[in-house]
Sequence to fold (524 residues):
Amino acid sequence: MTTTDHSATAAAPSTGERHLLKTGEEYTNLLRDNREIYQLGERIEDVTEHPATAGGVAEVAKMYDLQFDEQGRDLLTYVRDDGTRVTTSYLVPKTKEDLALRRKGIQYIARQTWGTHGRGMDMIATLMVGMHAYLPTFRKHCPEFADNIDLTLRRLEDGNVHIAETIVDPQGYRSRPSATTGDTPLPERATARITRESSEGIWISGVKGVGTAAPQSNELIVGSFYPTLTEESFWAVVPIDAPNLRMYCREMVHRDGASTYRHPLTSRGEEIDALVAFDDVFVPRSSILETHSQELHNPNFYNEWGRWEHWYTFVRIAAKAEMYAGLAQLIVDTLELDQVPVVRQRVADIYEFAILLQGMVLAAEETAFLSENGVMTPDHVMTTAARSYAQAQLPLVLHILQDICGQGMVLRFDESDLRLPAAYGKDLAWFLDTRNVSARDKNLVMNLAWDVAASEHATRSKIFEESNALNVPFLKERIYGEWDRAELVSLVRQYIGLEAGGLSNNLAPRITNSLSAPTNGKPR
Fold:
């Protein structure tokens, strides 16, 4: 495979064009397999029909169909060097124009889903792009499986595959007795690890946490993050329906069966989170990306080849911020609050949030650089700073949305309630109309505001954003370790005539090497 030749060319729609794209129906049909998924103590026989998973499947299916829409085609697909139109999910960006195409596609999907699908069909795909971007390092430390990285990337692109990930250890008793050597079997451990190996492949046993959207995906990247044992050091791709692979879903937070009027957002379903258990799961050699190289599991190295994943998250949150801003203005217009200074100032905080993130998205793109394998990389310090700022501000944004709604968010009604008699021979709607909108439409706006800012779904989304691939304190640690401020300190010293001697080692970036010493930070 030669992914280094990938360059984005958004061609106009054409009749009979060769493509390797799936429709929503094709994606959905592939989920009807032998996957072993459980929720509330019972097995989910069909994720496309079960209340906990069906809504999220339907939402992803819509995104697949958008690849064939005139606008979506130019944002979600591109024409490869061989003349084949494929998904941009696995596009290896070589230029800033490639990054811009990916950014526009991420924004497009986020605007269709209110940015609540943090593990959409084009998100975890960026991990494969990151591995390719640092392929020389993978090849140096694990040459046995390095070629599988590009082969797998091409296979997933050709298949238009929706891939999920599970990489963190479960919250539990992780430090059971240490491993033994020789002929003595390894003791049971909570963390997923390699238990057997042969010339055909490896076998994995143990548990991994937070497989977001995994029950609704086609395949799964499984790996480890700063593992204790070499047996816990591996990266591999497995099908969701692999024998002896089981998933346990949390309870759902969306409103299954609710009308789109009462719950405009949460009636649409959600991406479900799951704990993933491996009970002697076999992985063939062709699906192994790396094994036994603890150097490649250093958190700092992960944060290098995971930069495209982090950038994706940042772009999605920036698009989400724009949706918050649009909703804030809609609430102001609906409740006729435009003339209230304190409301304007509070809403301006949301606009500032969106504006700053917009600027940081473009700045990360403009200051992008090439990785060691020639892949265009968004500025990582800008991305980290933006994610830290976004996470810190998100609770305030949600609170402002709640606050400007006032009693409207508390007193929400069904359309049938509005037709009931109230007083003076008038129905309830007559007392809730405004000069700008009808009671029905005002109530619809409040229903959306509730779903977005106050519902159980909103709480899950907020927790997800705040713990998704490092929380704020760890992001600030990365900023401190990665931002080069030596020149700035030198300017200040020159200004006051302070000699250059005795400069602190903290001035230049401390995290400059793929395999530098690990930080304390781990993703969620």
